[in-house]
Amino acid sequence: MPLELHKVLAKLENEPETMSVVAGSFGYISPEYDYTGKVNEKIDVYSFGVVLLEMATGRESNRGNEHMSLAKWAWQHFGDGKSIIEALGMLFGRNQQFCDLKNLTVLDVPYNYIPGEFPDILNCSMLEYLVLMQNAFVGPIPADIDRLSCLRYLDLTANNFSGEFHASIGRLQELFYLFLVQKELNGTWPTEIGNLGNLELLAMAYNDKFLPAALPKEFGALKKLKFLWMTKTNLMGEIPETLINNLSSLEHLDLAINNLSGPIPGGLLMSKNLINLYIFNNRLSGHIPSSIEAPNLKDVDLSKNSLTGPIPEVSGSCKI
Questions:
Q1: Which of 64, 84, 132, 274 could form a disulfide with 70 if both were Cys (CB 3.0 to 4.6 A apart)?
Q2: Which one, of 302, 237, 246, lies nearest residue 276 by Cα?
Q3: Is the whole model's pTM more than 0.70, yes or no?
Q4: What is the pLDDT of residues 24-56, one digit of tens each?
């Protein structure tokens, strides 16, 4: 029974706010309550704090470790001059079994300073939503990340993950959102990303340690893709006309700050769904396509290229 409820019942029955027998579960009860038997707001705050620790660490209230409660474990950790963030790092580490939580579907821990390698969560077979962005994770992204077969939303942005990105990413068939921005990854982009038939948003910008490579033609199979962001990813070569024609659902395309060359594909400025187009700071050349008929186009930046010729007339149906 919650401690606040004991307080309410005590008032209803005109009883003092004390109890002769300690009620509640070990691990949630504060030491003061254990000593005095009195219930007040501070006791409730303590219990609520334990609940927050459970949520943050994945441990049960009475299992900080094999010798003490979760609250005592956290206090001891703090007394050693370590932060709770460091404690989270320990729990996410490879030596801990964070994912005995078989029914976990959401893990959302962005904007922290959690250190260590990719968390040991591959046993979370029901996980659908994983956000680790803006932390201090290092090391490789697991080659067997496809064990998270239910994953629909994956954001690893702004960490220090390094090494190659494995082809296994292409086996996460439920993914509709994939953000891999600003990392220390190298090698080349796995063309298997083109196998993600449900993908709608793909962001891989600011990964300038990747080897220079052409825009993968396999991405043309992403028929549902609406958002593609590949700024500063060492792209080179021409923008394939066939790729652009196949990405018929595309609304936002950002290939800026690369080494793309050759002409702008004629079909790019005729895409019926395209709203934003950013291909500035490349080495594109030739004339701007003579026909701009994309009806939903609002924002275009072609600056810092080597384009020549006149600026074409814009169709009256464009919103630019």
A1: 64
A2: 302
A3: yes
A4: 555 666 666 666 666 666 666 677 666 666 655
